[in-house]
Amino acid sequence: MKLPQIKIGELIPKFPIIQGGMAVRVSTAPLAAAVANAGGIGVLGASGMELDELRLEIRKARDLTSGIIGVNIMFAVRNFAQMVRTALEEKIDVVFTGAGFSRDVFGWGKEFGIPVVSIVSSGKLAAVAEKCGAAAVVAEGVEAGGHLGTNRSLFDILPEIRAKVKIPVIAAGGIIDGFGVAKALKMGADGVQMATRFVLSKECAVAKAFKEMYLQARADDVVMVESPVGLPGRALRNEFVSKLQQGSQPNPEKCRNCLKVCSHKYCIMDALENSRTGQVAEGLVFCGQNVYQIKDILSVKDIFDRIVAQVESVE
């Protein structure tokens, strides 16, 4: 099977592979640039960054690649509009947004001539996104990591979404190798988004302890947790998650007022930052459902080479 081309607005990457934008500094310039250099679309995870930090990260990525760089910004963050404007002013190539739905973002993108891609989990919302001006949609199933917008499998929602829209459909959730890519493409996807696989890359800047949790994970270590954002999330079982399940998690020491809606049961920004910096027992380690199947850390280029070879081996 040959990998097809995908066109998002006027953007045509060499491969139809998008690296998922992981928030709170998991997807930063070195990873996004490496993906862009390998022929995919590299995506910065903007949520959790300050505006000046986001500007700097986009510029760092630009210094490292001439490829396609995008940004993922959660609608759930309070400064959503300012973050999108900042990315557009920095001439980001494409904006991805999920964890809620914004109609205004498409007008902002049109103003700057930059495509906007909505992350959706139903055919109904995909159709709304297309009508509003989305250049493509990411069909994200329950197998994904982080915040989840559905309890339905990717391969359940993918045909539904494909039937509802004419714009490109990007499959996401649980895809970790070329065989998963091939399955999604055969079911009508124009491309795929992968996040968890790229955490276990040499270019991903999370702490060694974070990557070790991924490498040592078993299937029953992957659990659902309640997020203060108001959406369920998928993470690895650890001391913090056990406390969360028992209702004995630490209360936030201070509120950053960073989310539009927050239960205040714990600070998700602190929990994600703790894990990223190696304090994995005291934080959330978000991951996709199939993380336990990944057993090596490779360069981004080697990950791409393996994916392409696997896809081409499928008839």
Automatic annotation (TrEMBL):
One Pfam assignment: NMO
Keyword Nucleus: no
Entry's Gene Ontology molecular function annotations: dioxygenase activity; nitronate monooxygenase activity
Name of the protein in question: Probable nitronate monooxygenase
Superkingdom, taxonomy of origin: Bacteria
Native source species: Desulfotruncus arcticus DSM 17038
Free-text function comment from the UniProt entry: Nitronate monooxygenase that uses molecular oxygen to catalyze the oxidative denitrification of alkyl nitronates. Acts on propionate 3-nitronate (P3N), the presumed physiological substrate. Probably functions in the detoxification of P3N, a metabolic poison produced by plants and fungi as a defense mechanism.
Keywords assigned by UniProt, alphabetized: Dioxygenase, Flavoprotein, FMN, Oxidoreductase
